[in-house]
Amino acid sequence: MDGTLFRSVNKFFIIAFCLDIKSYKSFMHRPDSFFLATKMAAPLTLLLIVAVTIRAVLFRSSLAELISARVEVVSPLNAWKRVVEGLALLDLGVSPYSGDVFHETPLMIYLFHFTVDYAEIVFIVTDGITALALYLSIQTYNKDVFRKQKYALESDRYSADCLELLRSPKEMFYIPLKVAMFYLLNPFTILSCVAKSTCGLNNAIIALFIFCTLKGSALLSGILLALATYQSIYPLTLFAPALLFFLQRLYIPVNLRRSSFWFFTLQYAFMYVGSLVVITGLSFFLLGSWDFIPSVYGFIFSVPDLTPNIGLFWYFFAEMFEHFRLFFSCVFQINVFFYTIPLSIKLKEHPVFLIFMQIAIISIFKSYPTVGDVALYMAFLPAWSHLYRFLRNIFLVSCVLLACSALFPVLWHLWIYAGSANSNFYYAITLLFNFGQILLVADYFYAYLRREHHLTHGLYLKKKDGTEATLVLK
Amino acid sequence: MLILSSLLLFILTTHSEALTPAAARDEFQEELVIRPLHSGDIYASFQFRTLWDTDFLQEGQKVSHYRLFPKSLGQVLSKFSVRELHISFTQGFWRTMQWGQPFIPSPPGAELWVWFHDTVSDVDGNWKELTNVLSGIFCASLNFIDLTNTVQPSASFKPLGLGNATDHRFLRYATLPREIVCTENLTPWKKLLPCGSKAGLAVLMKSEKLFHSSFHSQAVHIRPICQDEQCSSKAWELRQTLNVVFDLHTSGQGKKEWSLFKMFSRTLTEACPLASSSKVYVDITDNPELFELSPATPLLGQAVVLGDRRTYSVYDLSRAETFGQLRSFNLLLRDMLRPLLHAERYVAGFGLQTGEIHTVIYNNHPYRAFPVLLMDSVPWYLQLYIHTLTVTSKSRDNKPSYIHYQPAKDRHRPHLLEMLIQLPPHSMTEVTVQFERALLKWTEYTPDPNHGFYVGSSVVSALVPSMVAMRTNFTQDQPLFSSFVPVKEESSYFVRVYTEPLLVNLPTPDFSMPYNVICLTCTVVAVGYGSFYNLLTRTFQVDEPSPPLSKRLANLIRRMRGVPLLT
């Protein structure tokens, strides 16, 4: 009796949703608006104008110089001062990699060799491209999510009482714009752009990679992933989510005994590795030496420069006992890559969320993180706004992150300029900041898993005796 | 407004005209003599002289109209019938062997000697009262002068002014060697001057500078003198003197250079308007060609002092051109004996993040430009930014014609920067380059890390144009000291100049807590690892409370009995 009632109610809602879907579809698939829904073009343009204005004003103000010297915004890997230094060394006829000041990749030198006079415009445009790529990616992703939800509903895979967990086009409508806004108007991104940190370019490559992946272009995705890897090695871990996404898209089950799985995996791996080899070879021919390998990747892995930053490495390795150094640098570097396999297994049905998790883990545990890296994964937060009801300590985490962001410059000043504090003060804040980030990412991960559990098992779970149940991890 | 101001001007001019007859009767002169001493110290002697042809000692007539002469002293003279008064306050001892003779000698502490008029009946009473009054005027402890430390010298202290009084009953002499001279004695002394310390030479008397010296002596001398050679009329002379010896030799790093500003931390802006003459004399008798006095003066004076003929440069402060364009007169003496090539270096900037190395190279050759090679070796923990390198001479960009730069490798090799710079004649060339300070591993710091890290001298090598022809052929009979660097050309010689080493502070970690840092950082990583591990390996389950102990025991028994279990 109960079952039939539920079924009929369910059917009713499905019909209602399908109607909704139709309106959504008609809106999303209007032939003239493949890239930009016309209704959204105006706010997006406005957003871009505001973002560009803020950056242009800051570039012209005296703050630009101050910001570009902040250790939170620039690291030895991506400081603009070091790019200029590398170009100056090139002009003097010295290899930029002969010293330990320049750690950009050779392609970066050649990009800025031609655009050094328009650097500010390059960085503003890069930020715009990143935001646009993220906007379009999330738009595509939302369509995808909605389609899957529809199939799941139609095939009765969702539990009967989880209707309030379903996502509607209405609430998803502004998410792409919010994502773009979270990226463009995030103070971290603005600071990073004004400091001309090349982190903005790496972010653009990753955003374009996500866009191409979600659009289903395996070749472009492979090339961009290779480029991102070439830039900063860590995006290597994004290979797994991209592969999972393509497999899902092509309806190839992840089964190690199936030849189609291996065929596609090898195909994608070949595209990725092939582009990586081509790009690296190109760098070799541009400079005529392999000097950049130890200077860029060796520098990332062995962490010789202990200039303070917002990460965990600098103080740890400044205070490390000499005979444990190698062991701990291995442990810390493996830590970044370690989560890829278990996360891929756990989230094999949700590659986009896996991408988010990977980017966040990279930006927390990488050797020279800056606020620009933090800004990239934070831009995805609006895409998970439906997880809000399952987040456990978002208030605490936001307070911690905000307080830390304010305390970074204060404690830096006290240590470096006033001399009234010591390195421990700044270190304490970096610890807390990373702790907050870990909490944030873990919280979103928890919320995502919990929502998935509720979708299949029902929202209002009951104990055996009929009383309201509490959900625990066991 | 215009009418009012012209009226005011009229009143002022008539007023000053009314005073002009009095101006003829008294006059004021000021003078400063600067004399470099053989020890390298600078002796500055101020003299202020007020002349007034009045008679303080006339019976029944009270002098009441004072203009330049200080009233306080005038009243003292007439009240105690003083004929001659000499008082001096001295801090430090005049070292005759090193400094020669002073213009006016004085003993350490306070000295007072007075000739009373021969009409005075109770000399001791007057003396007692006079010392107390002077003690008040000069804020000094002259009231400690009593009969236990007063003497009547019979021969040594003769009157310096008019009158050949030889009756030493009217002379009193006392010294207070313990008297400590300080600002509170200088202030009343300055108040006796017609212009106070507002204008004229007295502007230079800033007490913190005057008392930061090797020797300080201030004195007041009052005596009657003849007004002209025939001695037709008598006048009272008040001479206020102040002698200081500045120890610029040690504070100025052994240079014999000085300037008014360095000594007094003030410059002159005008002469005292009440003075009939206001002059500065600089003794240039010794080595005039080795030093350059600026501004130069065409006036030269000669004087025979203490059995020695000296030559002086004279500056007349009553002439407007002395003060030049800036309305400020800062006399300075520069050492002409400078090396042709000289270099120095320092670190600029604040904080422990960035900094800038400044290397300053001087070419003191008056007309020849020559190139120098500058070599800098900077340790790797100061990361140089070669694109910030600037070379400026005479505030113009001076691009080096050759640069060799080898950037540092962390923990392997230092930065090496070599460049060839053309130094314009008589110029200062500044080379700046910015650097960033690295945070080192805790084991890489020296045992005293907050002392800082040393950066070696930079080396300036050059072929300096020579004034005399050099000998290029090497012979055995050449002295050893002249043959170390082989000479290739006749017209120049090789010089190498080393700058100062730099001391640079680096940011330091807390050396006491490697364990704590390892634990704390690992904790944060473990929190990340743990929370991900938790979410990855566990699944969501409904929390079913386990049955109470009694039920479990009952079930155990039931299972043994083979009876259906309780639920």
Automatic annotation (TrEMBL), chain A:
It holds the Pfam family PIG-U. GO terms for cellular component: GPI-anchor transamidase complex. The chain crosses the membrane at residues 34-58, 118-138, 173-194, 206-227, 233-252, 264-290, 296-317, 324-341, 353-381, 393-418, 424-446. Pathway: Glycolipid biosynthesis; glycosylphosphatidylinositol-anchor biosynthesis. InterPro entries: PIG-U (IPR009600). It is found in: Endoplasmic reticulum membrane. Keywords: Endoplasmic reticulum, GPI-anchor biosynthesis, Membrane, Transmembrane, Transmembrane helix. GO terms for biological process: attachment of GPI anchor to protein; GPI anchor biosynthetic process. Its main location: endoplasmic reticulum. It comes from the Eukaryota. It is a multi-pass membrane protein. Belongs to the PIGU family. This is Phosphatidylinositol glycan anchor biosynthesis, class U. It comes from Cyprinus carpio carpio.
From TrEMBL, chain B:
One of its GO terms (biological process) is attachment of GPI anchor to protein. InterPro entries: PIG-T. GO terms for cellular component: GPI-anchor transamidase complex. Keywords: Signal. Residues 1-18 form the signal peptide. This is Phosphatidylinositol glycan anchor biosynthesis, class T.
